[in-house]
Amino acid sequence: MEDFIRKLPKVELHLHIEGSLEPELMFTLAERNNISLPYASVEEARNAYQFTDLQSFLDIYYQGANVLQTKQDFFDLTWAYLLRCQEDNVIHTEIFFDPQTHTQRGIPFATVVAGISDALEKAEKELGISSLLIMCFLRHLSEQDAFDTLEQAKPHLDKIVAVGLDSSELGHPPEKFSRVFSASRQLGLRCVAHAGEEGPPANIRSAIDDLHVERIDHGVKCASDRKLVDELARMKMPLTVCPLSNIKLCVFSSMEQHNFLYLLKKGVCVTINSDDPAFFGGYMTDNFLAVHKALNLTRPQLVQCTMNAIEACFLNQKNKKNLL
Ligand code: HPA
Ligand code: ZN
Fold first, then answer.
1. Positions in the chain short of pLDDT 50
2. Which residues have their alpha-adjacent CB atom under 5 A from ion ligand 2?
3. Cα 312 → chain centroid
4. The whole model's pTM is what?
5. 34 burial level (CB within 10 Å; 0-12, 13-18, 19+)
6. Per the residue annotation, which of 18, 22, 94, 197 is the catalytic one?
7. What is the CATH number that goes with domain 2-323?
8. Where along the chain do its domains lie?
9. Which residues define the annotated binding site?
10. Whose CA is nearest to atom 7 of ligand 1?
C-alpha cells in the first residue's frame, strides 16, 4: 500500500511556497544575504517548530521568510520544492505566495514573481510538472494594503491565475476583503480563500457568498454545521485539506480524530495537500501516508483524492484531460 501511495499521481492545490523553506536552505540564504537567524543550527530551528495554534506558527513562518531577498533566492526556494514534487509524483501544483510578506521588507513584487515563475517554467520543461501561481492577501493587514498589492500585481497578471486569502483567520473574516476580491475578479483572476481552518463555519459561508471563491482552503470546521456539509457536497465546492498541518496546529488532537474520511464519505470534494511542508513535517506523499495510516483509506478513496484535485484545479478542460 505504501508503494501504491508513493506512485499515485498527485495534484497539489494548497502549498505556500514560503512554507517550503527547509531550515538547511534558510541557513544557506541567511549566510548568502548576511542575515542573522534566531537559531544556532538547523536542529535548533527544527526543534523550534512546535506550535499550539495558527498564530504561533505564523510568527515563526514570517520570520523565516526574511532570508528571501533576491530573485535567485526565490528561484532556489521554488526549485527545491519542485524537486520534492518530482519525488512524490506530483504532476501539477498550484502554488501560493504572499507578496506582502516581501514587499513590506522592500523586496520588489517583480523580484518575487520572477524568481518563482522562472523555476516553474524550468520544472514544466525539465520535470514535466505543470503549475499555476496564486497570490494571497494577508488578512491581518488592511483592505487598503490588499488593494495596493493588487495594483502592484497588474503588470504580472499573465503569471498569476488567482487570488487567495491567508494568515490569521480569527478576527479577520473573509467579508473584510469583499471589495478587493471583486476587483480581482474583474481583472480576470479566480478566487480562493482560507476559511474554516480555525474559524467558524460562518467564515466558509462568507468566503462563498461574499468572496465568490471556487475553492475553500482547509474548510475542515464545516463539520460542526451539518447543513453546510450537505451544501458543500451539493455545490461540489472543493476543500483543500492539509492533514499534517491540521495536526501540527492542533486543529485536531490526532490524525485519528481528523474528519477527512467523514467529509469524503459525505461526498464533499476533499483533496490532500501539504500547506507548509518544511514546518509541518511532510510533503504530499507524507500527507497521503499519514491519512491512510490513521483513517484506513481504500485504494479507490485515495484515487478519488487525486481525481477530486484534478476536478478542482484551475487548468482548462484540455489540460486537465492531459493530466489523466
Ligand atoms: N493558514 C493561514 N495562513 C497561512 C497558512 C495556513 O495554514 N500557511 C501559511 N500561511
Ligand atoms: Zn494554507
1. none
2. 275
3. 14
4. 0.98
5. exposed
6. 197
7. 3.20.20.140
8. 2-323
9. 14, 16, 194, 275-276
10. 275
